[in-house]
């Protein structure tokens, strides 16, 4: 039953930012070297909250997959596809929904939290409650034994494991119970010091150009307890400095720490250093993205080809599922 497969999906929310870059994507890039990876745009999952405004989803997929490709997620090495192109996800979801107790879904902390926080949308739907069942299908339809997820997705994955166990108990051993591959990722702060997020309007996007990036970096919050350049600063309190550790070479950083504490380097100059390093580091990625974006229909082709490959695997699993179920 064991295989080397990894499955991971991302809801298409449009252009990706540096938080994705240092979190999910660098993790995927590493996994791609050692596993058979299935990476997909979870467009049906988007419907759970966006069912009333679906017009942006296609564009979001396009932007997101361009970012993946530019970053080095490679269709020659990984299967890159679109969830809604592989109907077996839905078929398995239906079957799993029959054996999933509603109480498992209702006690899911993410469910409760989102119900409470997203008050502008009516989330009292069957589909939203069933989010983890669809996610379980995404994963086990490829019999994946490992799933790279962030801490926030752990409760969902726990439900996946429970559903797989229940299926095996009822109908015989078909599915491995997938384990979470938790990876340490740096928490990337946005311009205002909160977690970087598109919805907070504090993000630097992978697709921003050099000019835009510089402007954003220069607007970043620094050490709020250092009102004037003549006051000594503290890098450990500085929002911008959290990005220095990702983009500025160690030696230069050591100099900055000393100069900041001695009040010989001001925040404006310090952020100029950061902006320069960041623009240089991101330049090849941006050039690549522009080149890929010029090839019209590229993303579509990649997704079609990937979806065919994914479907071939998913179909095999469904043959076993039907046999086990006798329906
Ligand atoms: N729930 C994930 C998120 O919100 C997206 C997702 C859907 C996913 N299906 C998945 C992740 C399967 C890993 C495996 O980020």
N-to-C span: 22 Å
Largest sheet, in brief, is:
3 strands, parallel
Mean pLDDT across the residues is: 95
Please state the second-level CATH architecture of the largest domain. Answer: 3-Layer(aba) Sandwich
Helix content: 55-70%
CATH class of the largest domain: Alpha Beta
Number of helices: 14
Number of domains: 2
Radius of gyration: 22 Å
Structural class: mainly alpha
CATH topology description of the largest domain: Rossmann fold
- What general outline do the C-alpha atoms trace? elongated
What is the β-strand count?
A: 5
Q: Walk across the major sheet and give the strand order.
A: 1-2-3
Topology order in helix (H) and strand (E) letters: EHEHHEHHHHHEHEHHHHH
Low-confidence stretches: none
Range of strand content: 5-15%
Task: Describe the structure concisely for a colleague.
The model has no long low-confidence stretch (mean pLDDT 95). The protein has 327 residues and is mostly helical.
Could you walk me through the main structural features you see in this protein, from its secondary elements to its overall organization?
- It is a single chain.
- This protein is mostly helical.
- The protein folds into two domains: 5-188 and 297-325, Rossmann fold; 198-290, Tyrosyl-Transfer RNA Synthetase, CATH 1.10.240.
- The chain has helices at residues 18-34, 43-50, 57-71, 88-99, 102-106, 109-117, 126-129, 131-140, 154-171, 210-218, 239-247, 250-261, 267-294, 298-325, and strands at residues 5-10, 36-41, 79-82, 146-149, 179-182.
- Strands 1-2-3 form a three-stranded parallel sheet. The chain has a two-stranded parallel sheet with strand order 4-5.
- Strand 4 (146-149), helix 9 and strand 5 form a beta-alpha-beta unit.
- Helix 3 (57-71) packs across helix 13 (267-294).
- The site of tryptophan (TRP) has 14 residues, from strand 1, helix 8 and strand 4.
């Amino acid at each position: 039953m064991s295989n080397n497969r990894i499955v991971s999906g991302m809801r298409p929310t449009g252009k990706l930012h540096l938080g994705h870059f240092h979190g999910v994507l660098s993790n995927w890039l590493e996994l791609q070297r050692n596993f058979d990876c299935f990476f997909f745009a979870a467009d049906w999952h988007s419907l759970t909250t966006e069912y009333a405004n679906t017009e942006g989803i296609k564009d979001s997929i396009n932007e997101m997959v361009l970012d993946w490709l530019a970053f080095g997620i490679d269709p020659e090495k990984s299967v890159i596809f679109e969830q809604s192109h592989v109907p077996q996800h839905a078929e398995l979801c239906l079957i799993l929904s029959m054996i999933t107790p509603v109480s498992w879904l209702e006690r899911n902390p993410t469910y409760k939290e989102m119900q409470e926080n997203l008050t502008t949308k009516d989330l009292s739907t069957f589909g939203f409650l069933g989010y983890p069942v669809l996610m379980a299908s995404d994963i086990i339809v490829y019999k994946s034994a490992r799933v790279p997820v962030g801490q926030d997705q752990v409760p969902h994955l726990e439900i996946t494991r429970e559903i797989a166990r229940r299926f095996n108990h009822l109908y015989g051993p078909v599915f491995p119970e997938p384990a979470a591959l938790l990876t340490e990722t740096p928490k990337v702060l946005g311009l205002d010091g909160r977690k970087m997020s598109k919805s907070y309007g504090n993000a630097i996007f992978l697709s921003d150009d050099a000019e835009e990036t510089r402007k954003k970096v220069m607007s970043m919050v620094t050490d709020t307890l250092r009102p004037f350049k003549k006051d000594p600063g503290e890098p450990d309190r500085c929002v911008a400095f959290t990005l220095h550790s990702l983009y500025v070479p160690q030696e230069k950083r050591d100099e900055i720490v000393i100069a900041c504490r001695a009040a010989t380097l001001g925040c404006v100059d310090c952020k100029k250093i950061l902006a320069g390093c960041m623009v240089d580091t991101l330049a090849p990625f941006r050039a690549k993205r522009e080149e890929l974006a010029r090839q019209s229909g590229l993303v579509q082709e990649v997704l079609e080809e990937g979806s065919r490959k994914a479907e071939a695997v998913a179909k095999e699993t469904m043959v076993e599922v039907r046999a086990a179920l006798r329906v």
